[in-house]
Design goal:
The complex is a heterodimer. By secondary structure, chain A is mostly beta strands. In chain A, a hairpin with a 5-residue loop joins strand 4 and strand 5. Chain A is globular and about 40 Å long. Chain A starts with a strand and ends with a strand. Chain B is mostly beta strands. In chain B, the strands form two sheets. In chain B, strands 2, 4, 5, 6, 9, 10 and 11 form a seven-stranded mixed β-sheet that branches. Chain B has a four-stranded antiparallel β-sheet with strand order 1-3-8-7, with no helix packed on it. In chain B, strand 4 and strand 5 form a beta hairpin. The chains are: A mainly beta, B mainly beta. The interface between A and B is medium-sized, with 26 and 26 residues.
């Protein structure tokens, strides 16, 4: 069984401030982990993924995430927020062996103020 | 450029109607998925398919069925639409390391 918990349904930051979106997972087997972004009335776009290579993963638009096995976490960060980063962000987990489906967290809405 | 195409962006249907949501992918993926997205609940898996004519129930299959006659096409069927099926529906295709999503279909059942 696998699950994802995203802490905070809404996160507000000022433009230029650090972005930190939290994700904790549970998985009975080694996981693959993902962050997706969704802009209003759009589908999901992959930001970055961890697939058991480097634990610090860099993605698009300046985002990165670090896989910490001891903390079962995969938090998403960006050093300096832009207005265009305002969107909903989803963390997801799947198993890294064989076929498996993605399990998503409930999402975190990022609000960026000028 | 990878592409998952959902046939409609917006749909309005009446209670009791049979509704078909179509999804086509051009990446030759074996795996395809239908998710439902509701505010505060995230994405929930309805059905998935790992091969032509194969289907597996996800977490919330009640009231839905699916069809996969060809590798590139995966259809979600609402046998008798109800108001509680008003939602955003997202189709995806992928492998074990990534899933690609369509733009979504916002279905309203009145």
């Amino acid at each position: 069984a696998q699950s994802v918990t995203q802490l905070g349904s809404h996160v507000s930051v000022s433009e230029g401030a650090l972005v930190l979106l939290r994700c904790n997972y549970s998985s009975s087997v080694p996981p693959y982990l993902f962050w997706y972004v969704q802009y209003p009335n759009q589908g999901l776009q992959l930001l970055l993924k961890y697939t058991s290579a480097a634990t610090l993963v860099k993605g698009i638009n300046g985002f990165e995430a670090e896989f910490k096995k001891s903390e079962t976490s995969f938090h998403l960060t960006k050093p300096s927020a832009h207005m265009s980063d305002a969107a909903e962000y989803f963390c997801a987990v799947t198993q890294n062996s064989g076929y498996s489906t993605l399990t998503f967290g409930k999402g975190t809405m990022l609000l960026v103020s000028p | 450029d990878v592409k998952v195409t959902q046939s409609s962006r917006y749909l309005v249907k009446r209670t009791g109607e049979k509704v078909f949501l179509e999804c086509v992918q051009d990446m030759d993926h074996e795996n395809m998925f239908w998710y439902r997205q509701d505010p505060g609940l995230g994405l929930r898996l309805i059905y998935f398919s790992y091969d032509v004519k194969m289907k597996e129930k996800g977490d919330i299959p009640e009231g839905y069925s699916v069809s996969r006659e060809k590798k590139e096409r995966f259809s979600l069927i609402l046998e008798s639409a109800s108001t509680n099926q008003t939602s955003m529906y997202l189709c995806a295709s992928g492998d074990s390391t990534e899933a690609f999503f369509g733009q979504g279909t916002r279905l309203t059942v009145v």
